Amino acid sequence: MYVIKSTPALMLAVAIALMPGMVLHGLQFGPAVWLQVGICLVAALLAELAAAFYRQVGLVKTLADCSWVPTGLLLGLSLAPLTPIYLDLLATIVAINLIKHGAGGMGQNRINPAMGGLMVVALAFPTLLYPAPSAHAPWLAQVDLAQAWQAILRIGPRLHFDAMASATPLANHYQGGFSVHWSVFGYLLGGLALAALRVIRLEIPLMLLASCALTCVALGESWADSLTELLYGGLMLAAFFIATDPVTSPVTFKGRLVYAALIGALIGTVRRFGLYPDGICIAVVLCNLLVVDIDRRMRPAVFGNPPAGR
């Protein structure tokens, strides 16, 4: 079996694996999704160029690892569509210039760049983010490219998202029940392809998804509602493409299981009790900060000595 070894090839493999989910997400919720991704991708390229300038390294060296490509794609898919363009830029600058290059470049960062940038925007400007698209009320699919540009640039008349996001489900008697984001199937397909190429380890997404569902059940949700949580694209995206980041996830097998279980439990808890409907970025960043300690405690004993840190 072919195993990807070079960094540019690995990054491009991740980007290609994201394509099925991104295409299905846009087909379900309209071209605004792809516009958001394109903006974040261009912003990521500009941020890398800025990093090459202030770090005084060659452009080819900075861009050649292609790490900015999956970062831009993940930010575009994680941010709510029609997010103001200045928040897209802020999230990208935090992700690439502060988290990645501020730590010394690729491979030196302790937290996932895309999730760090998203968390700053989500915590600092929650009222400026539009509501996430809902499969119950596909209001976003009604927005064409011209309207999307106006909303992102904050020009022209304001779209009445409250009516589209809240009144529509009431008018159609959709107040809960089963719904699915088509992107789930694309991210699942892409994630399995990466696992087959040995780019990611399957124990992380499997443990994360199981932990999130079990946490929701423990907190009072029914099994049906808990399993429905897995059918939202953001969770599947996080499980296969974000939590599996080799730089910010544990290197030991037991460590990866503990790490994924903690992320899943935090996501379920934040969704149940927190102010933020998703909580993925918060859970991932907090657990990224525990990775070194998790690995130290999960490292097997050598010659009868207890693991370091005990």
Automatic annotation (TrEMBL):
The chain crosses the membrane at residues 6-27, 34-54, 74-99, 111-130, 179-197, 230-253, 273-292. Keywords: Flavoprotein, FMN, Membrane, Phosphoprotein, Translocase, Transmembrane, Transmembrane helix, Transport. It comes from the Bacteria. Pfam families: NQR2_RnfD_RnfE. This is RnfABCDGE type electron transport complex subunit D.
